[in-house]
Known about the structure:
alpha+beta
Amino acid sequence: xxxxxxxxxxxxxxxxxxxxxxxxxxxxxxxxxxxxxxxxxxxxxxxxxxxxxxxxxxxxx
Length: 61
């Protein structure tokens, strides 16, 4: 089973870039749901949403 995480990029009011990493994401979660989750999570802060990246790690052996 692949290990899935997301990386959320945000920007502060002082124009500083931040990255939030969240591990152990459900591998069956759709990209639309992950996008919605990331945007809603950032909405709880004072930062501005920039983007989200889904990272999948899988053994090839």
